[in-house]
Design a protein that fits this description.
The chain is an alpha/beta fold. The protein has 14 helices and 15 strands. It folds into two domains: 144 residues, Aspartate Aminotransferase, domain 1; 241 residues, Type I PLP-dependent aspartate aminotransferase-like (Major domain) (Aspartate Aminotransferase, domain 2), CATH 3.40.640. Helix 3 runs parallel beside helix 10, helix 4 runs parallel beside helix 5 and helix 12 runs parallel beside helix 14. GO terms for molecular function: L-alanine:2-oxoglutarate aminotransferase activity; valine-pyruvate transaminase activity.
Length: 404
Amino acid sequence: MRTIRQSQKLRGVRYDVRGPILVEAQRLEAEGHRILKLNIGNTAPFGFDAPEAIQTAVTQSLPEAQGYSDSRGIYEARTAVAQYYQSRGLRDTMVDDVFIGNGVSELISMVLQAFVDDGNEILVPAPDYPLWTGAVTLTGGTPVHYVCDESNGWMPDLEDIESKITENTHALVIINPNNPTGAVYSKEMVEALVDIARRHDLVVLADEIYEKILYDDAVHHHAATAAGSDVLCLTFSGLSKAYRVCGYRAGWVMISGPKETATEFLEGLTLLANMRMCANVPAQHAIQTALGGYQSIDELIVPGGRFHEQTMLADKLLNEIPGVSSVRPRGALYCFPRLDPEVYRIDDDQQFVIDLLRSKKILVTHGTGFNWTAPDHFRLVTLPDVEVLEEAIGRIGEFLATRR
């Protein structure tokens, strides 16, 4: 019998956040080991429950959520998203500019399928959320990684971006606040990134899922605001993180700028929305309640709030380990520490993470899994409470002491 192989389209596609390391963790769990999973920003396992009002909105909608909705999303949800952006100065946002999806992940894939032809180049940050690189590759495009500068607070290197633009470059991905680094871009940086897109006639793809998770004096600036009326901008966001409903899969993409130049692309996006019928209907009923109600995330991100205290503690403890340095996150739910190559000679960071897992039963993600170029970083989720973080990072420190 012939061997059934995976599609050639998957060659080069990686998603190491849930890759071979997770398989090893599952094997250890099957043997009876308790694994502390600090590899995925999933809020529920760490005691972060969805606001009660959102849960109520979903449960009460169940009787009327049994059938398909409009493929773009229920009207109330799209209206709430449009009004959300209108309230932030994007006054031209209309209901028809919004598509609801099963999380941002689905919408990224749909948008790229509608937009990318074989050989098109898409500028993606390094490090990045690896779905972007994988989805570009899967659609036949070529991800071209521009450097974010660790010595400059993980800000994008504008000169590096400019140097990598070719006649095949079609879009610029901006992840702000950034996953995995926790960087939050200034207004000037967002404007500079959009200006590059403007001068080179690129579409801006703005991943802003962490826009509400900001620490201390950090302020989020929408790329769509800088893009104005002359740069096509697709803004991705949703409820997963700020409202602690990762499993609801309630996300959206909002299209702004010169939409009249993108009629054919938008027809293609609508076609793909129709082909998947619609997003999860019960979860769509959470969107209006979430965006229009009390913003409970504010209690978590201020000093004394769990998100703030845990992230700041993790950063502090990591920096106390000899040979480890961490740029203080200004947003999101992660630290992306560096292992000094002069102290830790690591050639294969995936193997390093597997060794840590086997030795200390701590699951993190290696830095090259986020398309970082060198095997000298890893990402750690900051969702556990302070006692668990202290124990976890203490174990990481113990393991690193054996590798110095």
